[in-house]
Amino acid sequence: MRRNRLTLTALYGSLTVGSLIWMVPVVTALAISLLPIGQTREGWWNGSLSQLTLDNYRDAWDQGVSQYVVASFVITLGSVAVSLVVGALASYAFARLEFRFKRVAFFLLLTTMIVPVQIILIPLLPWLRTLGLDQGGLQYLGIILVHTAFGAGWAVFMMSAFFADVPEELLEAARLDGASHLGQLRYVVLPLALPGLVSFAIIDFVFVWNDLLLGLTLLDRDHQPLTVGLANLQSPHLAQENLVSAGSILVILPPLLLFVALNRFYVRGLFAGGVKG
Amino acid sequence: MTTSVKRSPHVSGRRSSGDHRVGGRKRTPFSSTRKSGKKRGPSGGAFVTPLMVIFSLFYLWPVLQSLISSFFTWGLLRPWDLFDRSTWQFAGVDNYRRTLSDPEFWHAGANSLLWLVLFPLLVVGISLVMAVAIWHARRWSVLFRTVFVLPMTISLAAAGVIWSFVYNSDSHIGVLNAVLKALHLQGTLDIGPLHLNTTGQWLADPGTLNLGFYDVRLVNVFVIIAAAWAFAGYGVITFSAGLASLPQELIDSARVDGSGTVQVVRHVIVPHLRKPMRIVFVVSVIFALRTFDIVYVMTQGGPNTDSTVLGLLPWQQAFAFLTSPQAGQASAVAVLMSAVLIALGFPYLKSMLPRKESR
User: Fold this and answer.
1) Same domain, residue pair A74 and A162
2) Which of A48, A202, A232, B78 reaches 20 to 30 Å from A80, CA-CA?
3) Residues A61 and A20 both lie in one domain
4) Closest residue of chain B to A167, computed from CA coordinates
5) Residue A120 is nearest to which of B62, B79, B166, comparing CB atoms?
6) pLDDT by residue (tens digit) across B159-183?
7) Which chain A residue is nearest to residue B228, measuring alpha carbons?
8) Regarding beta strands B21-22 and B215-217, do their DSSP bridges make them parallel or antiparallel, or are they unpaired?
9) H or E element: which one contains A171?
10) B195: DSSP letter
């Protein structure tokens, strides 16, 4: 019994210490973002609670971060919406219907989970120009479609797994009532697979929000998302740790809040279909 | 979160809850369509068309363009165009030959190899230890698990930035240096082939490991640590789900047979987690080879090219200097990378492809 108690203490002790160490990077960024830069330079851990201020956030916001935030939301929400609509339609077919080249199509979709984005990146720039998706707000449409295409494997893999869970008997009943395939999808599959759709939406949100490479390469400076904005702020030659840290917290926050609020869906989604690397 | 992890019956199962059985057999996305999916209204083709159009235009076609254009000499100022013969400056296999004889390519390849070895090891090792410890703890396990899983949602760009604070060479900002300074551990350390510089230049000049034929630049290790921190949560989730399905009787009977904790971990827990370990390993290998974001943010491949990886190379070649006609060569690098990834990931891909139904 004694030995047991000792091991338990050691276990909880090391878990607590481990957790604290694990939090250090986030705590560092959070502290620097909330302290005046002068205090940061004298050791942010010496700062006191009375010094906490949102000035860094205001300054970062005024220095163009607001624009990045807007772009991030437009790109992310747009990509999730398009992926949900076209992905759900396709997933219904993959889960429930027969069509030609089904396996080949599925395999090609899955390759997006393996290959690096770099394989589409280089020709994309001239290709988007050819399509006229390289100007002003149309850039958003361009990158949304690219995100949809590169996330298609994940979307279909995950949503078709959830759609396959819907009991066949219910679809049978709907068919007897004269429902078309679209009707079955709309009134039977989608409501029953709603948790699955939420899971996909969250994971896709986190993934698109966190993208750096596509935004960096395909968009001009006025349309880049927050991750790129952060990379632009982060320059070894500029000593603006206060702005950079505020920016990093802003990048982290939306996916983190989603994760905390809808944790169950997020975890469920991961197990619905491997994970997006 | 834990409730769903714990309830999840199998780690890598396609579905996390209630497999519905139709006529006594499990449904997969590909099953029983022939029998019950008799044509009514639009066929499957109509449903996949919107997605496949977008997929073809913004994935398949660019992939094809990358493949073909890697045999031409071109730059982004004068892009290669399949339908415009005047842009065709055929190079044969020159782009590939030049790439394969380019020391910078092999240098980036060596760094990527380091990622390939170290990153999955770190991720699997750290998350396995954490998951087992959390599983043992039971009380407060939700809290501990949340702490270790949270970084997973953090963008790698942001993870790179906040780790740059930790590594900051100014010991008033960088925690790591502040701690080392307080402990009077700053200096240089030479242990055999290892040359470690602990004066705070973690991302500039942290030292090397001399393997005799090659100097491993330790700056990569510090970037990899940051990436593993951001990725380990995936392993924790996966292993936790695997542990949740471990029958308590198995452990009890091992205990009755006189096994200690270490033996239980070695002979009961780890074998039970073999499948989740394989998944976490494969996914982190893929991740390691595709790495771009975190290196770009933390070091831009520097100092010099010490931390360049394969993922960074095509981007630098094609986009860093728009005037250079290196896009063909950059495409060649991307093609080679993809080939390696497809080859490594093929078994994984096949395992995700539903089995053909024989009915």
Assistant:
1) yes
2) A232
3) no
4) B20
5) B62
6) 999 999 999 988 888 999 999 999 9
7) A22
8) unpaired
9) helix A168-176
10) E
Whether residues A169 and A213 fall in one domain: yes
* Residue B132 CA neighbour count, 13 Å, CB half: 17
Same domain? A34 vs A61: no
Contact B291, B311 (CB under 8 A): yes
Q: What is the CATH number of the domain that holds A93?
A: 1.10.3720.10
Domain count, chain A: 2
Name the residue of chain A whose CA is nearest to B344's CA. Answer: A114
The residue from A17, A36, A52 where one domain ends is A52
Q: Are residues A20 and A131 in the same domain?
A: no
A261: nearest CA in chain B? B1
CA torsion angle B196 B197 B202 B205 (round to 10): -100
Residue B303 exposed, middle or buried by CB count within 10 Å (0-12, 13-18, 19+): middle
Expressed as residue numbers, the domain containing A226 is 57-273
Measure CB to CB from residue A11 to each of B62, B137, B334 and give the nearest one: B137
Q: Is A262 helix (H, G, I), strand (E, B) or coil?
A: coil
A151 and A231 housed in the same domain: yes
pLDDT of residue A122: 92
Q: How far is A71 from chain B (nearest CA, A)?
A: 16
Of A52, A70, A87, the position where a domain reaches its end is A52
- Whether residues A137 and A239 share a domain: the answer is yes
pLDDT digit string (tens) for B94-127? 899 999 999 999 999 999 999 999 999 999 999 9
Instruction: Work out the minimum CA distance from B102 to partner chain A, whole angstroms.
Output: 19
How many contacts does A have with B, using Cβ atoms within 8 A? 367
Q: Are residues A25 and A110 in the same domain?
A: no
Cα–Cα distance measured from residue B18 to residue B231, given in angstroms and rounded to the nearest whole number: 29
Residue A168 and residue B32: Cβ atoms within 8 Å?
yes
